Amino acid sequence: RAMTEFARWQWDDAGQWRDFAEQHQAEMEASFQSRAPCLELAIPPFGTFRMDLKRMRQVTLRGRNPGYEREIRRQARRIEAGYFILGQEGEIFASDEAIDQIEDAAPLEALASLLGRIVEDPEDFSRRSANLSEGELADAFGACELAVDFLKERGFEEIEDGDDCFVVFLSEDTSGLSEALREVEARLAAVRRQQAKASSSGNAANPACSESGGEEDDSPANLVAECSCSSVPPPLPGGAAEAVASGAAAEGA
């Protein structure tokens, strides 16, 4: 049987393995397959890194903490060629990225709004901070730590001031936020499709009752109501009808 291999590249985030972005997955795998010892990756806004594919280490070249190293790894899976591997949304593997774990539309909409404001006018520094303890952001982010994790992964810093919590983007390089916004919008579209599908399945399982306009209500109460409104008196019981008929005949005689 012909076998094929699918690989995912990940980096160590204080003991938790996270996937590299899709565009970096392709670059790293291509270098690995060509037996290159290393490659350089620019990952805005964090900096430029050397990926040592022999020692499986990521080394910061430019950006925060030059010289800092962390582990990377390649996770591979071999499957039979032609085997159906695509998931519901067309993904080969389930992602462990924070953005892909969010199942509610509200925090995704808040993320899209925040990132969209910065991308629209990156020179306006008043748009680069948000108080997560007030208004709609408090409702959207209050029960969704994953949304804050996503912002921190994309270069935001979380700052606590008394009872308030802020996220602030301090880096001058905002080029990576456009990609972050596209990720959020893609995830939001996927969540909405899932919700629409679930709603559609629920309606199919519980069809609405048929309209009563074309059906007659023959309940006793309704029959009584119909009789009371009719201009023709209801028929008398058999014995009473005969008595009335006899009386009428006698009067006629």
TrEMBL record:
Pfam family, one: WWE
Region Disordered: start-end pairs: 196-228
PROSITE patterns: WWE
Gene3D superfamilies hit by this protein: 3.30.720.50
Domain WWE as annotated: residue spans: 1-74
Protein name as annotated: WWE domain-containing protein
Organism from which the protein derives: Zooxanthella nutricula
